[in-house]
Each structure stands twice: as structure tokens, then as C-alpha cells.
């Protein structure tokens, strides 16, 4: 199975002929090569694709919006008029737009599909997430321009490619709606030559030829029947027919000549990134302390994790590991929340702490200006999910404390010895960041995206804690 060759028609300027170009390009490609699979879709909301290609009135199985919600493109494709396949347009894109921010989403969807041949994507006249996704996945981007303003808007498309580290090779300018009745004196005889020279002057590459302005072609989109007719069947005697044939031939030849298609390249990038993420995960997992950082109970062995409740890492990355839920909650209640008795797991206060901990980060850190061995103080902070301080408490550390019948060693010391104490038994410069984890899958915190979020919060918190110079 070969990956499809994707053509994106894009311009931030409306009224330049994007949809006319996209719909007719699909038909001309089928005419050039009858066995070539051609699939068309649009992120614009005028439903021209559906009007032009739908054969029957049956309800669609899905639409282009479903490409961004996990649906396989194969399940959305319908067979349309003129042998062109299409994915129905959507009424829900305005809602989806607010929820999406990943321009690789469309490429991810098509990598999983078995669609072959050429896919043509018509876009809206703005750089929203749907246009960005279509550009990100494209082997060829055709940018229709009809005047200076539409040429100026091209820079945003070029900027998108540059900002995402993509080659500009797929980008081509195509002068459209060129009025052949206009002639100039001087080096540029007509609007086509002027537009082409303007594109070249900006460093843009052009397709050969142009698409002329034609009253006959414009009338194919507006008629009493409300149907949209193709140029190939109803505009064959216009100059636009010859021009569209020339554009379609260029697209077809480039699809043949392109050895590595964008989706294949993206798929390789995905595999490489996945392997890199797996290696990073394994490195983080192998660096974990095997026992609970409070009681020492074995929690990590080989490639699995026991019933851990919290993940902890020192800011100097010297130590990372898990803490049993009862161990950490017990320390919090006893030393920082003033509980005078042991809180049992069935107590309402336990449930309240567990629920709030889901949305919190906890920090243990030496209190500034307290490094004397006999008068060490420990600060306990709680931050919200965005890394903003909610509360903090300071206690004086005592290795041995009076219990009911005798002095016993503080439960805090095993944790501090494993994480924050230096070789002299003093609290060092680092702090310990603690985060609640899933009891079913504690190692999820080590997955690349989750760990990246943890690291970002740690960096943000570090800017709010006292500077090391104030800790001496």
C-alpha cells in the first residue's frame, strides 16, 4: 500500500478561486488517468464539494470534522460523481476549532488510512488549525493569487512552513482569475506577467501557466438549478479548460516524480520520535529508586511498578522514585496539617486530601537561612496544577521525637535521607517535588508528554522558591 499524494489549495485571501480550482482539479486528474484514485475534501463551510459530487441523498457516515476526533479516513470516504471520491463537509468545525491545536493531527489520521492516489484539500481563507493541518500534510501546496493583496498574504503560509521546520519545496503560486482584457505598457504586458514577476521577486516559485477570469466558468457555479457544473463538461470551449488541463498535468507528473511522500516522511518521523520517547522512558524508569522513598517497601522491579501513590524527584535530579499513598499522606497529616492522631484511610479527611492532591504539587525544601545541623528547618509547599503557590508551612526538624512511651526516630528522616540530605546529614540546596500518580498505572508519569509537563512545573516552581544565595 502506497501513501497518498496530498495537494492543499490554500490562500488567506477570499475570492481567489480556491474551491473552483480544487473541485475541477479533482475531475481533470480523473480525466487524465481514469484508474487514478482521487479523493476531495474541504474545510470551508459552503458545502460546494457535497453539492457537486454527492450522487444520492443518503445521510453521510461522517464528515471532515471526524478526522480530528479519531475516525479513520477510510470510513468517511464516499464515491461521488465523475469517479471522484470525497469526504463530506462539516457543520461542526467552528466548535472543533476551539479544541484543537496540533497541526499534525490530519497527517496522523491519514497515516493510519489506506487511501491511495491523490487527495485534494480545499481550505478556508484563514490560517486556522484546519488550514495548518492541511499545509502540514501536503506534498504540493497551490496558492491561488489574483492581485497584490492576495500575494502579500502568501507570506503567512511561507512563515508557517519555516516555523515548523518544513521545506518550502511543496509551495507553488498560481495566478488565478487573470483578466486577459487588461494590458500594460512596459516590461509586464498583462496581469499574469505582473503577478508572476511579483512572486519571483519575493522568492516564491510558481506553477507554469495561470487560470483566466471567465464569465462562462463563473456561471457554472450560479444557475437556477442550484447545481455546480464542472469546467470539463460545461466549459470545454473556454481557455480555462486548456489551463486546467495544464495545471492537472503538472500535479499528476509531480505526484509520480515524488519518491518520498510527505505522509511517508511523517510516518518515519513518528516512528523515530516514538523510539526516542521509549528510550527516554526506559532511562527514566531504570533510574528510579526501587523502594518507597519513605518506608523502603519494594515498589519497582524489572519493567513494572507496584501500588505507588506519589512520584517524587529532587530538583537536582539526583533521586527519583515513588512513595506509597499511605506513607506520604501520613507524613503530610502528622507534620504539616497538625493531625494529633493517626488518620485512617477510611476517614473523610483522607478522602478530602486524596481528592485535592490530584490537582496539586507538593514541595519539601530547606527553609532559607537554616543550615545549622542542630536547627534545621523544613518548608512544605503546596502548588496548584499550574505551578502557583497555594500554601506553605515550616517545621523544625528533629531526628528523634517524643512518642507515647519513648523517643522514636522521625518518620520524615528516611525520606529526607534518600532525597535531600547531603553526605553530612544536612539539607542541601535541592528541593523535592511530589506529584500524585494513577494507582493503576504509576509509571504513566514517566511517559514523555506527562514527564515533560512535570519538568515544566518543576522549572516554574523553582523560580518562586528562595534563591540558593538566600539558603546559606
Molecular structure report:
With 472 residues, this protein is of the alpha/beta class. The chain folds into 2 domains: 5-270, P-loop containing nucleotide triphosphate hydrolases (Rossmann fold, 3-Layer(aba) Sandwich), CATH 3.40.50.300; 287-470, no CATH class. Helices cover 35% and strands 18% of the residues. The protein contains 16 helices and 18 strands. It has helices at 18-32, 48-53, 93-97, 105-111, 129-136, 148-152, 154-163, 191-201, 215-219, 231-234, 239-257, 262-286, 325-336, 348-357, 412-419, 448-464; strands at residues 5-9, 38-42, 78-79, 85-86, 118-122, 140-145, 171-178, 211-212, 300-301, 304-305, 310-314, 320-323, 360-366, 377-384, 389-396, 400-402, 407-409, 431-436. It has an 8-stranded mixed sheet with strand order 3-4-2-5-1-6-7-8, sandwiched between helices. Strands 12-11-18-13-14-15 form a 6-stranded antiparallel sheet. Strand 14 (377-384) and strand 15 (389-396) form a beta hairpin. Helix 4 crosses helix 12 (262-286). The longest helix has 25 residues, at 262-286. The protein is elongated. Residues 468-472 have low confidence and may be disordered.
Topology summary:
Elements: E1 5-9, H1 18-32, E2 38-42, H2 48-53, E3 78-79, E4 85-86, H3 93-97, H4 105-111, E5 118-122, H5 129-136, E6 140-145, H6 148-152, H7 154-163, E7 171-178, H8 191-201, E8 211-212, H9 215-219, H10 231-234, H11 239-257, H12 262-286, E9 300-301, E10 304-305, E11 310-314, E12 320-323, H13 325-336, H14 348-357, E13 360-366, E14 377-384, E15 389-396, E16 400-402, E17 407-409, H15 412-419, E18 431-436, H16 448-464
Parallel strand pairs: 1-5, 1-6, 2-4, 2-5, 6-7, 7-8
Antiparallel strand pairs: 3-4, 9-10, 11-12, 11-18, 13-14, 13-18, 14-15, 16-17
Helix pairs in contact: 1-11, 4-12
Amino acid at each position: 500500500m502506497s501513501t497518498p499524494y496530498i495537494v492543499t489549495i490554500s490562500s488567506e485571501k477570499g475570492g481567489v478561486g480556491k474551491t473552483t480550482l480544487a473541485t475541477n482539479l479533482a475531475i481533470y486528474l480523473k480525466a487524465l488517468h481514469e484508474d487514478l484514485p482521487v479523493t476531495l475534501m474541504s474545510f470551508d463551510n459552503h458545502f460546494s464539494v457535497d453539492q457537486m459530487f454527492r450522487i444520492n441523498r443518503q445521510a453521510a457516515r461522517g464528515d471532515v470534522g471526524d478526522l480530528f476526533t479519531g475516525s479513520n479516513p477510510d470510513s468517511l470516504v464516499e464515491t461521488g460523481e465523475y469517479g471522484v471520491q470525497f469526504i463530506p463537509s462539516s457543520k461542526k468545525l467552528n466548535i472543533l476549532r476551539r479544541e484543537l491545536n496540533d497541526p499534525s493531527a490530519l497527517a496522523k489520521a491519514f497515516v493510519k488510512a489506506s487511501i491511495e492516489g491523490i487527495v485534494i484539500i480545499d481550505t478556508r481563507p484563514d490560517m486556522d488549525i484546519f488550514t495548518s493541518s492541511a499545509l502540514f500534510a501536503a506534498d504540493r501546496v497551490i496558492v491561488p493569487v489574483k492581485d497584490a493583496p492576495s500575494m502579500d498574504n502568501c507570506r503567512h503560509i511561507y512563515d508557517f512552513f519555516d516555523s515548523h521546520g518544513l521545506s518550502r519545496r511543496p509551495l507553488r503560486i498560481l495566478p488565478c482569475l487573470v483578466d486577459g482584457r487588461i494590458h500594460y505598457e512596459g516590461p509586464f504586458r498583462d496581469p499574469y506577467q505582473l503577478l508572476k514577476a511579483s512572486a519571483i521577486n519575493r522568492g516564491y516559485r510558481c506553477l507554469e501557466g495561470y487560470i483566466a477570469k471567465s464569465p462562462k466558468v463563473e456561471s457554472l457555479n450560479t444557475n437556477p438549478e442550484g447545481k455546480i457544473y464542472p469546467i470539463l463538461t460545461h466549459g470545454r470551449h473556454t481557455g480555462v479548460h486548456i489551463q486546467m488541463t495544464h495545471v492537472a498535468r503538472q500535479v499528476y507528473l509531480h505526484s509520480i516524480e515524488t519518491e518520498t511522500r510527505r505522509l511517508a516522511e511523517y510516518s518515519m518521523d513518528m516512528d523515530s520520535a516514538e523510539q526516542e520517547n521509549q528510550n527516554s522512558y526506559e532511562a527514566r524508569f531504570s533510574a528510579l529508586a526501587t523502594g518507597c522513598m519513605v518506608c523502603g517497601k519494594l515498589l519497582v522491579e524489572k519493567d513494572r511498578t507496584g501500588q505507588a501513590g506519589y512520584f517524587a524527584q529532587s530538583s537536582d535530579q539526583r533521586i527519583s522514585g515513588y512513595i506509597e499513598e499511605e506513607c506520604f499522606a501520613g507524613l503530610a497529616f502528622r507534620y504539616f496539617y497538625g493531625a494529633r492522631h493517626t488518620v485512617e484511610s477510611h476517614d473523610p479527611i483522607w478522602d478530602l486530601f486524596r481528592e485535592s492532591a490530584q490537582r496539586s504539587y507538593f514541595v519539601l525544601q530547606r527553609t532559607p537561612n537554616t543550615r545549622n545541623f542542630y536547627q534545621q528547618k523544613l518548608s512544605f509547599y503546596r502548588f496548584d496544577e499550574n505551578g502557583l503557590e497555594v500554601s506553605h508551612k515550616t517545621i523544625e526538624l528533629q531526628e528523634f521525637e517524643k512518642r507515647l512511651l519513648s523517643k522514636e526516630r522521625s518518620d520524615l528522616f528516611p525520606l529526607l535521607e534518600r532525597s535531600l540530605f547531603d553526605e553530612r546529614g544536612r539539607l542541601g540546596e535541592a528541593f523535592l517535588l511530589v506529584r500524585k500518580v494513577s494507582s493503576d498505572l504509576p509509571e504513566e508519569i514517566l511517559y514523555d508528554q506527562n514527564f515533560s509537563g512535570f519538568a515544566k512545573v518543576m522549572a516554574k516552581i523553582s523560580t518562586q522558591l528562595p534563591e540558593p544565595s538566600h539558603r546559606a
